[in-house]
Write a structure and sequence with these properties.
Elements: H1 10-107
């Protein structure tokens, strides 16, 4: 069988087909790798944004901790003052009772 002049012999033809298939596979792999690259950059940008938000939240948390510590100290001071006032009130109450007892005994 004589091959037409336009078409290469079958060995060359199969080699050409293999070369085209290989080129197509490598082209598709390149496109897929580029898509993964773009996806990776998008994920990196989102991760950086989340990191910034986390840092802001950490700062807010630390501020709240400081405020809570100050409020705790104020509450402890208030409690101490209230205990002192209660003790003073009890002393005054006991003195009043003693004076009342003295006045009752003086009346008799």
């Amino acid at each position: 069988m004589i091959a037409p002049k336009d078409q290469p012999p079958s060995d060359e033809r199969s080699t050409l087909v293999r070369a085209r298939v290989t080129a197509l596979v490598f082209g598709l792999l390149t496109i897929v790798s580029l898509l993964f690259l773009v996806y990776g950059f998008i994920q990196k940008a989102e991760a950086e944004k989340n990191m910034q938000e986390a840092l802001v939240q950490k700062q807010l948390y630390e501020q709240c901790q400081q405020e809570n510590e100050m409020v705790k100290q104020v509450a402890q001071e208030s409690l101490r003052m209230a205990e002192m006032e209660r003790a003073r009130a009890e002393e005054n109450y006991l003195r009043s009772l003693q004076e009342l007892e003295k006045s009752k005994s003086n009346r008799k």
